[in-house]
Amino acid sequence: LQGYASEMDNPSLVHLIPSALQNKKEILFGNLPEIYYFHNRIFLKEIENCIENPELLARCFLKRKEDLQIYEKYCQNKPRSEALWRQCGDSIFFQECQRKLDHKLSLDAYLLKPVQRITKYQLLLKEMLKCSKNSEGTAELEEALATMLDIIKSVNDSMHQIAITGYEGDVSELGKLLMQGSFNVWTDHKKGHNKVKDLARFKPMQRHLFLYTKMLLFCKKREENSDGHEKTASYSFKNSLKMSTVGITENVKGDNKKFEIWYNGREEVYIIQASSVELKNTWISEIRKVLT
C-alpha cells in the first residue's frame, strides 16, 4: 500500500503511470486498505493478546466472523485486478516502485496474499486442534475452524456466482446462495413431442446448478481463454425453478447418485446425477431445508 498504491499519487511518478491504469487504483488493489486496516487496528492486537493464553485464540475468530467477510469482496474483485495487471504489469511505473522497495517479487505476488491468507487460517486452526485434544478451548477451536471453512465456502461460491451470464433478474434478490456445483441432468417434460422426450432420456446435459433460498438456477459452464492466459469459467443461464413450487424425489431406481427435482406437479421433471452419494445427500438436505 505504501510502496505502490500511495506512489500512484506521487507527482514525480505520475508521468510513468500507463493510461490504462489512470483512476483504476480501486480495481487494482480492491479493498486491500480495508483488509490492512482491520488487521492493523483490530485483529493483530487481539491475536497478540493470546500469546500467553492460546486457548483464547479461537474466540478471536468467532468474534470477528462478520469482519472476515471483507475477504469475499477482495476475492470477487480479483479477476478484474488480474486483468488490469496483465495489461499494465510490465510498465516502467511498477518496475520503478519495485526497484525502490528492493523487492524480489513483483506486485502481483503480494496482491495474491489476501487470497492465500483467508485459506491459510483454517490450516493453522487444524494444526492447533492437533495440539490441543481434550484441553481447554478445544470445542471453541472446532467452532472457529467450522467458521473459517464456512467463510471460504461462501467466498468460493460467490466467485462462481459473479460469473453467471444471461440471467435477466438480479441475483442478489434470490436470497442466500446455499450450494453450487456441476451435475448430469436429464429432463422429462409432460408437454412436447415424444421424439424429443425419448432423446432427452438418454443423453444427459452438463449443468452447473446454483441453489438459492428462493430459486434454483440451471446454467451451462463455458471455459474461456482470457487473453491467452488461464481459462476463466463463466456460466450461461439456461433456466430457473422457483423453490416455492418444486418437489423432490430422493431416490431414482437404478442409481443411488441420482435424485429428481420436479415442477408444477411433475409437469417438468429434472433427473440430477451427482458425482458421489455424499454430494447428493448434502444437496438433498439443503434443498429439504429450503422446502420446509
TrEMBL record:
Any GO CC annotation of this UniProt entry: cytoplasm
Keywords, comma-separated and alphabetical: Guanine-nucleotide releasing factor, Phosphoprotein
Annotated SUPFAM superfamilies: DBL homology domain (DH-domain) (SSF48065), PH domain-like (SSF50729)
Domain DH, residue spans: 1-158
InterPro entries: DBL_dom_sf (IPR035899), DH_dom (IPR000219), GDS_CDC24_CS (IPR001331), PH-like_dom_sf (IPR011993), PH_domain (IPR001849), RhoGEF_Guanine_NuclExch_SF (IPR051336), SOS1_NGEF_PH (IPR055251)
Keyword Transit peptide: no
PH domain segment(s): 170-292
Keyword DNA damage attached: no
A molecular function (GO) term: guanyl-nucleotide exchange factor activity
Top-level lineage group: Eukaryota
Database matches in Pfam families: RhoGEF, SOS1_NGEF_PH
One of the protein's GO biological processes: intracellular signal transduction
Protein name listed in UniProt: MCF2L factor
Organism: Tichodroma muraria
